[in-house]
Amino acid sequence: MTGKIIGIGNCIPSETIDNLFFNDHIFLDDQGIILKDDNASLTEKLKKITGIEERRYASRDQVTSDLGLIAAKAAIEDSGIDPETLDYIIFAHNFGDVRFGTVQSDMVPSLAARVKHLLKIENNFCVAYDVLFGCPGWIEGVIQANAFIKAGIAKRCLVIGAETLSRVVDIHDRDSMIYADGAGAVVLEYNDQDNSGIQSHLSASYTLKEKDYLFFGKSYNNEACQDTKYIKMEGRKIYEFALVHVPDAMKKCLDESKYSIDQVNKIIIHQANEKMDEAIVERFYKLYGLKMPENIMPMVIQKLGNSSVATIPSLLTMILKGELENHEIQKGDIVLFASVGAGMNINAFVYQF
After folding, report:
1. What is the pTM of this model?
2. pLDDT of residue 225
3. Which residue in 35, 169, 214, 313 is deepest, having the highest Cβ count within 10 Å?
């Protein structure tokens, strides 16, 4: 008995932001000093390291819960279920609803409650709650949904991952070019008919020394309001942390399943940084004394940027709907999902389609 994905959906915002968008930005270091490199050089370095050429931003009239609702409706329609039969709605995000032009986060009521309301679900025993777990939040939501299903207290769960990171970036910080908006969702259902579904999972939180690798901090513009906080990260520390700990977590998760490394058909990893993700997967295979196979790791960060909790469910939806060239998932395929992010949190699960 395990949770099986029966419906998928995403929301890719329509506003495309290419690297030229940042030409007129004034980028500063953490001391408030203008960076020596011109913006064309900075965006070229960004593309070389992260792979990002474009990213998507939500329209001005949309907030995170709006994107989540679109993805949720698509997943429910794809599953063919009556939404009244959902036992849980789990919404993974990190910053709540932040309206365009404002800096205030709105999380009350929960985003899950807002989506349930907009779906017009009358069932009071459909429980709606949010998960704040950094970029690995959507995977954690799936793990929790699977736990409810295996415990016999749920038969169907909707898990949403959505974020509008464009609303919480410091425009004077070059890292702002990494972040994007988006949403993805799945419907999981109780399955005891075949071997498909979640086979193993793993979660970890590294907080003793690593807690503040991603944090909310002041603008690099010293003249800006000191009370306004923006998303900040210690990029080098995150990179080094991820390369050490994520491959080990992926191996532990795979080893706890009944599958071997040569049976893995795809690895769907959080779209954080192209070079970092490639290095993580290469190290993962090295732990088995193998080289990373070609075409094992689909990437969409080049065009969609880093939309936090939305990257994995959005990517999964694109693959299953045949929207990603040279990548497909067939019935019976084994897929390893993994993510790393603020906390610092790491998680993974092995899934058989």
Report:
1. 0.94
2. 67
3. 313
The residue type of 128 is A
Alpha-carbon dihedral of residues 261, 263, 266, 268, nearest 10 degrees? -50
Closest alpha carbon to 87 in 195, 190, 234, 209: 190
> Which one-letter amino acid corresponds to residue 323?
E
Q: 264: which 2 tokens? A: 């893995």
pLDDT in tens, 9-48: 999 999 999 998 998 888 888 888 888 888 888 888 888 8
Which residues fall within 8 angstroms of residue 165, CB to CB, at 6 or more apart? 95, 179, 180, 181, 231, 306, 307, 308
Give every CB contact of residue 98 below 8 A, 6+ residues apart in sequence.
63, 64, 104, 105, 106, 164, 167, 168
Question: Structure tokens of 65?
Answer: 């819960």
Which pLDDT tens digit goes with each residue over 248-284? 999 999 999 989 999 999 999 999 999 999 999 999 9
CB-count burial class (<10 Å; 0-12, 13-18, 19+) for 120: exposed
DSSP state for residue 178 in the 8-state scheme:
T
Domains parsed from the chain with CATH numbers: 2-194 (3.40.47.10), 198-352 (3.40.47.10)
Pairing of strands 181-191, 127-131: unpaired
- Classified as helix, coil or strand, 228 is coil
Q: Which residue positions in the chain have pLDDT lower than 50?
A: none
| Strand, coil or helix: 12 | coil
